[in-house]
Design goal:
Blueprint: H1 10-20, H2 24-28, E1 33-39, H3 54-57, H4 61-68, E2 71-73, E3 76-77, H5 83-92, H6 96-99, H7 116-122, E4 126-131, E5 144-148, E6 158-160, E7 165-167, H8 172-186, E8 193-198, H9 235-238, H10 280-299, H11 304-339, E9 346-352, H12 371-374, E10 378-381, E11 390-392, E12 396-397, H13 401-408, H14 423-427, E13 438-443, E14 455-460, E15 463-468, E16 473-478, H15 496-512
Parallel strand pairs: 1-8, 1-9, 2-11, 3-12, 4-5, 4-8
Antiparallel strand pairs: 2-10, 5-6, 6-7, 9-10, 13-14, 14-15, 15-16
Helix pairs in contact: 8-11
The structure holds 2-deoxy-6-O-sulfo-2-(sulfoamino)-alpha-D-glucopyranose and calcium ion.
């Protein structure tokens, strides 16, 4: 029961465009629906279309279908790898300092600044948001909202609407899917829609749907080569607290109990969002499902290293089971659109608020400018695009999302938005100015959860420069020679020239995006 009550070669694409007979006029004559699906903490490594070996064991066929029929962005990045700030950037098209939401604390998002929602709304779109919001204020610019309370709960969650706060029995991913379809059924179909479907999963503490408790119990996922990273040469990484075998809570995160046959969870930091949300029966079903594996933890002798790998497996099994429900949800929504004849005039976007670690460097969580958390999945299935199954390799960023959605709707983005429309990359049409060759990143939340020091930085070509500015510590990576960012090459003579260029580029971006000096010290 679900509930009760590299830059796409522009010239090549221009030629392709001409051969398909698609012109921008076709696009301009329609106001497409935009269905934007975002999950929380969904790593690229866990999406089949991006090709990581994990997905051979845990495939995502429904998300991959969107990529096969649309565009897969392979170099998409976030501006600040954490939930609220990423979502604020997506809505406003601006970096964190410019939209005011720099951290996941109690800062209140100002929804009255120009956002994609209120601009589309003013331009005849019906707007709705269903699922995780996490911006500390009520949504503005939406005809309808049905959002989770703060982080939300996996089991039997509360949903907040304009007038109500109500608990619904069921699993959060399924509920969000059902509510999305319900809203689509009841919408005013004389208007195009902009619908943000915002999943909670696969966010910590990775509770799968009951039907998937056993899904990966016998699956051993690949252990990243740098799982036992010692953080040599990287000062900030030496003090972080996001190590799976040191910092994940054994009860809350890893669902471990205190002995053979026990029903007593080990350390559960937030019982109110875990066992406290389940009925007695649900809790028992949960414990029984994990019992054999939990007993085995005590009955089999393991070295510390083996225990650390056991924990990684438990983490991945649960995380990827949560992802399975997300993929099911995408499939269910796709079928719905097809059935209702909406696939041909609805642009479907799939993304996550940032990337995530699946054991790389020993970690879970995000925040760093290192690739796994800096990168963001982005797939756009656009029925107006001249080509299906394309890869867009230009450097894109979540500041581009709002200008893109506005462009799709034929609306000019306000000057203050800092991103650019991605439509020319999808359509293969020339852009007025050359595409960007570098990206600016800025993470602010320190002190904070997981102890990741504030840093900013630039990525250009296959190089990255990172500044932990409070301590004035620099890191630099050559991603071709060192794709997993284990060797900080800052200060090495052989990198002098590129280091100089990266410093200059970082200064240029700080100036271009008008980052105030007070945020750089
Ligand atoms: C919670 C999690 C953190 C996580 C933040 C932010 N701890 O505080 O691990 O980094 O959310 O996540 S938990 O013990 O409460 O699960 S975000 O996706 O909202 O940015
Ligand atoms: Ca997140």
């Amino acid at each position: 029961m679900r509930y009760f009550s590299k830059t796409i070669l522009l010239s090549f694409n221009v030629a392709l465009l001409a051969s398909c007979g698609i012109t921008s006029k076709d696009r301009k004559s329609t106001k497409p629906n935009i269905l934007y699906i975002i999950s929380d903490d969904h790593a690229l490594q866990a999406i089949g279309a991006y090709g990581h070996p994990i997905t051979k064991l845990a495939p995502t066929p429904n998300i991959d279908r969107l990529a096969n029929e649309g565009a897969l962005f392979t170099e998409n990045y976030c501006a600040n790898s954490i939930c609220g700030p990423s979502r604020a950037t997506i809505l406003t098209g601006k970096h964190s300092h410019a939209n005011g939401l720099m951290r996941n604390d109690n800062t209140k998002f100002n929804g009255h600044q120009p956002t994609v929602a209120n601009i589309l709304h003013a331009n005849g779109y019906q707007t709705a948001i269903i699922g995780k919001w996490h911006l500390n204020t009520r949504p503005v610019g939406f005809d309808h909202y049905q959002i989770l309370n703060d982080q939300g709960e996996y089991n039997n969650p509360d949903f907040v609407t304009k007038d109500t706060v109500q608990q619904f029995m069921g699993y959060v991913t399924n509920l969000i899917t059902d509510f999305t379809k319900k809203w689509l059924d009841e919408r005013d179909d004389s208007k195009p829609f902009f619908l943000m479907m915002q999943h909670k999963a696969p966010h910590r503490n990775w509770i799968p749907d009951e039907k998937y408790y056993h899904l990966f119990e016998n699956t051993e996922f690949p252990v990243p080569d740098n799982y036992f990273d010692n953080y040599e040469g990287r000062e900030a990484a030496q003090i972080q607290e996001m190590n799976i075998y040191q910092h994940a809570y054994e009860g809350h995160d890893l669902k471990m109990v205190d002995g053979v046959g026990s029903d007593q969870l080990l350390y559960d930091r937030w019982p109110q969002v875990f066992f406290g949300r389940m009925t007695d029966e649900e809790r028992q079903t949960f414990l029984d499902a994990y019992r054999e594996r939990n007993d085995d933890f005590y009955q089999t002798e393991r070295t510390d290293k083996e225990k650390a790998i056991w924990k990684l497996q438990r983490y991945l099994q649960d995380y990827l089971a949560c992802v399975r429900s997300i993929d099911d949800s995408v499939g269910e929504i796709y079928d719905y659109l097809e059935e209702k004849g909406l696939l041909e005039n609805t642009i479907v976007v799939y993304t996550s608020d940032q990337g995530f670690y699946l054991g790389e460097h020993g970690w879970f969580d995000k925040r760093w400018m290192y690739e796994e958390s800096f990168r963001m999945p982005l797939i756009i299935r656009d029925p107006f695009a001249p080509k299906q199954g394309q890869k867009v390799e230009a450097m894109t960023q979540n500041i581009d999302f709002a200008p893109t959605f506005l462009d799709m709707a034929g609306v000019t983005a306000p000057e203050e938005m800092q991103g650019r429309s991605l439509l020319p990359l999808i359509d293969g049409t020339p852009t007025a100015e050359p595409w960007r060759k570098s990206l600016y990143y800025h993470y602010y939340e320190y002190p904070g959860f997981h102890s990741v020091k504030a840093h900013n930085g630039v990525k250009m070509e296959h190089y990255k420069l990172i500044h932990f500015y409070k301590d004035n510590v620099w890191e630099m990576y050559d991603l071709k020679a060192d794709p997993t960012e284990m060797n900080n090459v800052y200060g090495l003579v052989e990198y002098n020239d590129i280091q100089f260029e990266l410093h200059a580029e970082l200064e240029k971006l700080i100036h271009q995006y008008q980052v105030p000096q007070k945020y750089l010290q």
